[in-house]
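It is time I had a proper look at our fold encoding. Can you supply me with one protein entry, sequence and fold together? It will help me judge whether the discrete encoding reads sensibly. Leave the record below and I will have a look:
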Amino acid sequence: MTPTEFELGEMSRELKEVRHDLRNHRLILDATIDDVSRLHGSLSRLKTQIATGIAAVVIVSAVVAWIVEMVWN
């Protein structure tokens, strides 16, 4: 049994909707990948800033301790 013209039209319309939905999902996925990539870069920069801040605090603490030791001796 072959489909009627109406059924073919319905299938064609549904196929176009599926293709449109697929294109939308691809756009959403691409945007999400871009967001994740940007967040990954931000996280890397934040880790570097935290490590730099900790290193600076350690160095300043060491210098202050050295100065205090020199003054008290």
Remarks:
- The longest helix spans residues 5-72.
- Helices lie at 5-72.
- The CA atoms of residues 22 and 28 lie 10 Å apart.
- The chain has a mean pLDDT of 96.
